[in-house]
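Researcher: Let's try something more involved. This one mixes different molecule types, so please make sure each is placed in the same coordinate frame as the others.
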Amino acid sequence: MNIVITASGNSLESKFDMRFGRCTWFCVYNSVDKTTEFFENENKNINGGAGTKSAAKVAELGAKRVISGDFGPKAKSLLEKFNIQMIVLDDDDLSVENIVDNLKEL
Amino acid sequence: MKIAVASGKGGTGKTTVSVNLYYFIAKFWNQNVQLVDCDVEEPNDAFFFINRKLERSKSVFQMIPEIDTDKCTFCKKCAEWCEFNSITIVPNLKFAEVNASLCHSCGACIAACDFGAIREKEIPLGVISSFDTGIGKGMTEGRLEVGSAMQTMLIKKLKKEVTEKDCITILDAPPGTSCPVVETVSESDFVILVSEPTPFGLHDLKITVDLLNQLDIPFGVIINKAGLGSDEVYSFLNEKKIELLGVIPFRREYAGLYSSGKILDNISKDTENIYIEIIKKIKSRV
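Model: All components are placed in one shared frame. Result:
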């Protein structure tokens, strides 16, 4: 299963990005082969609709779960339609690696 | 002729000034005057005309595109053309949808689609109502549909509705300096900025002055609630050589009259004189 984690950089040491629509990178963690891959968020600076664009991106990345700091109402309603589970983490000290390690233990 | 009343900061007295100007222009200058409430999120000018009679009322609509997923090939051309990022296409889920709260009804997506998969449907935008107030040519207001974010579109339709060439039109603007305000003041012959002598009033006045300079529309300033705050706003007007059209002193009783909708009852001689002077100055500018 693919799980998307919003990230502020494109490596495992990067900090977790608390923003969903305007995060800098999307880290895709594949829970079957335990690999990660990073995709840049090309919509992070658009005027409006960043949340819906990111929701679509997460769906295109084939995710079933997405981990971020919070989700705006428009993004939330789309992710619900896509049947993608939203997980809110309120801790901006975490690195992407910390979160991936926790997922590996599941 | 169009005269817009704007402020930047909310609660400085746009409605008070608009309603009074409308009343005093009809009384002392020209009966051919109308008032238009462009504060479509919370129009309240009509409250001050207790004996108003509703003359016309019509619902207006916004056209929102709908995507037929049976015809859609999920090519994303419409989403790329959309300036407002209102279209979500996810090919692997065969998902295509327009978010109505982001859509500005520009029609680009319909032009973009090569497969005839997009049609438009009407959704309510608001109601435009005209009232006989017994004063001049009456008043018109726009009232935005609850939940809609398309103030600017409604103001545009409202302005089209009331366009009368030889009439003095007073446009009561919404607060702020964003699109709805720009829409209200654009094509105006003159703008009256209502400010108050507080730090917030001055801060937002400066932003609004910048806006009007960029739009190249002549304007003057009325200071309302004078006596509160500081003299800083007067120094600003002096420094920028902006005309002070009038000064309305702060009075607690006046706020009471406003709250009970009675600012046009038993108008004091002082108030009348203030507006007579303001009208003189406006006449010399338009």
